[in-house]
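A reminder from the course coordinator: this example appears on the midterm review sheet, so study it carefully.

Given structure:
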């Protein structure tokens, strides 16, 4: 009996332990409820490595695309325009004048102080090249000068100088010209062009001189501009050269050059006059006008400036607009024929003695 009871207990114990083993076997198979082993950690590392590799691959593709787009943009961008640079010294500097010391091309944001210095240096250079710059109209008194200046509109000074001798021989005073027969004056002035309008102006200003100023040319700007045919430009020519009173003559050459040199961007003559006057002392105004006008007539032409023969090339921001080859540029230089003063100016070399110093003007002394 005891033996049978013992066998029953042993059987029940085995029966009770068998479900636990089965459950344990299921959990091991499913992986749930068991602590992670080496296999699970390895699987996680593999997944992470795959993700990192794919991310790097995507990044490299993006970087390659960006580089390709930049390369395409560089290829599409137009090539930069080659800028002509003036030589450090003028290539065809006229004998007897000091060469420009350095290239001083102004930057786009040139300060007012730098502009003043550059402008004054250009004037000094031109003063050395054209030491005898003067009004190129022939005159003996203020009356002849004001008449000649009025006649010079839309024609050359040479043509006016060929015409005025016969005019002043027949009508030497304002009283004579005021009482002249218009048809006779027109015939004399015909070679100057616009001779009818000019006849009306010179006879009208002569009458105004007789009636309002006692036959004398006034020495004040406000009085001169009241005369028929006389504007600020003509008035400053008369004031500066007949009365020794400083003035800036803003003719077509002057306007063109001061804009080309970037002294001002103004286009109105009165505004140009004010802008340039602020750059120079008043005592320089008259000579400055002569220097600029002479340079514009002889070297810095409107269509084909002789850049390669220009004495101020290192100071000019417009260098390269004209011919830069020295030999070709020399052929563009224009010097009037004749004597000095009162006629046409010869090349500056004609006024330099053997030692390279300015010789006296022809006819002087």
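Designed residues:
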């Amino acid at each position: 009996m005891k033996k049978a009871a013992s066998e029953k207990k042993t059987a029940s114990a085995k029966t009770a332990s068998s479900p636990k083993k089965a459950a344990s076997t299921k959990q091991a198979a499913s992986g749930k409820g068991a602590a992670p082993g080496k296999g699970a950690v390895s699987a996680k590392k593999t997944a992470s490595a795959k993700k990192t590799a794919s991310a790097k691959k995507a990044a490299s593709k993006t970087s390659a695309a960006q580089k390709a787009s930049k390369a395409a943009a560089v290829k599409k961008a137009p090539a930069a325009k080659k800028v002509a640079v003036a030589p450090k010294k003028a290539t065809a500097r006229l004998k007897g004048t000091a060469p420009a010391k350095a290239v001083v091309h102004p930057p786009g944001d040139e300060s007012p102080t730098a502009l003043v210095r550059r402008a004054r240096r250009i004037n000094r250079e031109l003063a050395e090249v054209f030491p005898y710059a003067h009004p190129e109209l022939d005159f003996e008194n203020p009356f002849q000068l004001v008449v000649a200046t009025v006649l010079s509109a839309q024609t050359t000074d040479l043509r006016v100088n060929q015409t005025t001798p016969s005019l002043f021989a027949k009508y030497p005073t304002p009283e004579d010209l005021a009482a002249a027969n218009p048809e006779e004056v027109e015939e004399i002035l015909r070679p100057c062009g616009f001779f009818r309008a000019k006849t009306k102006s010179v006879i009208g200003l002569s009458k105004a001189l007789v009636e309002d100023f006692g036959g004398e040319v006034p020495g004040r700007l406000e009085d001169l501009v009241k005369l028929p045919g006389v504007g600020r430009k003509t008035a400053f020519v008369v004031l500066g050269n007949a009365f020794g009173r400083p003035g800036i003559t803003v003719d077509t050459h002057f306007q063109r050059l001061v804009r080309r040199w970037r002294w001002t961007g103004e286009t109105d003559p009165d505004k140009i006059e004010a802008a340039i006057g602020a750059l120079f002392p008043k005592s320089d105004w008259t000579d400055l006008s002569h220097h600029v006008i002479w340079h514009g007539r002889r070297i810095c032409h409107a269509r084909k400036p002789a850049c390669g023969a220009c004495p101020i090339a290192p100071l000019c921001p417009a260098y390269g607009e004209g011919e830069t080859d020295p030999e070709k540029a020399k052929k563009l230089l224009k010097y009037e024929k004749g004597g000095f003063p009162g006629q046409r100016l010869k090349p500056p070399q004609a006024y330099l003695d053997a030692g390279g110093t300015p010789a006296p003007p022809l006819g002087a002394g």
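The radius of gyration is 46 Å. Residues 105 and 290 are 24 Å apart (CA to CA).
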